[in-house]
Design a protein that fits this description.
six-stranded parallel beta sheet; 12 helices; single chain; alpha/beta; 18% strand
């Protein structure tokens, strides 16, 4: 593809394959319409030429999005609404420490035909930290992909045979409820607490996850079962760490064995501990700040990759918690006025 030229408020791109360009646009060019609304530009497609009208900065961003989507299509990947949103985030979100852009390419493989990509600059930086540090904290609101990406990267290490096991754990704690006695054997009792980890595994690995769990290559267990163990040659994930006490957090972190890596994910604003204090997580972040080999990836509401409404919900709750009045645009979002 190449830039053909600029006219006052227009930028024109030329793509080699007209069929790929049509695939990117989707049915009735709905994907181009989505880009227009998101970046406040006008996109016009004629054959293998795409003209973009709008403010200079908006034009450049739209061009970057289209070029990235075309590169994905060239590798044979489908282009979904989620992929488009991720490229828009990369184009619009500016950060001082810009992550390596190679995460937009097929680089995180969890199985022979499975590829996982970052969907925001924060996710790309998170993956980069997991590559380079033995202990990483992923901190931020719900829906930012903290647990999903950790599970995907652990599956990637298994696929590359860089670790022998994948160990996932979380505290067995009800979300503000008291469930009482649960029927069944031990596995049946604890499975409801671990379901989010199962979901992430099956989505990143597929049906092979069942066989891997049966053979012990993948282990999913409550935090209480970690005491006294040494986890060597493994990728270890602690999810929902905001529900760990200080003693539990110290116990878990010291399970790290030879040739192992660990990721701890949590959202301090959603602790189910008495008083809503994420004491174990917050204390660990303070004590381990600056320790060699330890890194922290922080996410914000801008990094939410679930339904667009989730980001607005997070911002609304954060604004209420700070005791301030929400900006008018957020009030409109949540009230529907």
């Amino acid at each position: 593809m190449s830039s053909k030229g600029k006219k006052r408020e227009q930028l024109t791109l030329e793509f080699a394959d007209n069929a790929l360009l049509l695939a990117i646009g989707g049915s009735q060019h709905r994907n181009f319409v989505h880009i227009e609304k998101s970046l406040n530009v006008r996109v016009d497609v004629r054959g293998n030429l795409v003209s973009i009208e709008g403010a200079p900065e908006a034009r450049e961003r739209a061009a970057a999005v289209l070029c990235s989507l075309y590169a994905r299509a060239e590798t044979g990947d489908s282009v979904s609404a989620a992929e488009i949103d991720s490229e828009i985030r990369f184009a619009t979100q500016e950060r001082d420490d810009k992550p390596a852009r190679d995460f937009g390419q097929p680089s995180i493989k969890t199985a022979t035909s499975r590829v996982i990509r970052a969907r925001s600059p924060a996710q790309a930086a998170y993956l980069d930290l997991m590559r380079t540090h033995p202990l990483v904290f992923g901190i931020g609101p719900a829906g930012t992909g903290k647990t999903y990406l950790a599970a995907a990267y652990g599956a990637h290490l298994l696929y590359e045979r860089k670790v022998e096991r994948l160990v996932l754990s979380r505290p067995a704690m009800e979300a503000g409820e008291r469930l009482g006695f649960l029927p069944g054997d031990l596995k049946e009792k604890i499975d409801p607490y671990l379901r989010p980890l199962y979901d992430a595994l099956f989505d990143t690995i597929g049906d092979k996850a069942t066989r891997m769990m049966e053979t012990g290559v993948i282990e999913v267990a409550p935090l209480a079962f970690m005491r006294g163990r040494t986890l060597a040659n493994a990728f270890v994930i602690l999810d929902e760490a905001q529900n760990c006490t200080s003693a539990q957090m110290k116990m878990f972190l010291t399970r790290l064995g030879e040739d192992s890596r660990m990721v701890v994910t949590g959202d301090a604003s959603q602790s189910d501990l008495p008083g809503g204090r994420a004491e174990g997580l917050n204390e660990a972040l303070t004590i381990l700040s600056g320790v060699e080999g330890v890194a922290t990836a922080r996410f914000s509401d801008k990094d939410v990759v679930r339904h667009p409404l989730v980001g607005r919900i997070v911002r609304a709750y954060d604004g209420q918690a700070r005791g301030g009045e929400l900006p008018a645009r957020y009030r409109k979002d949540v009230s529907g006025e």
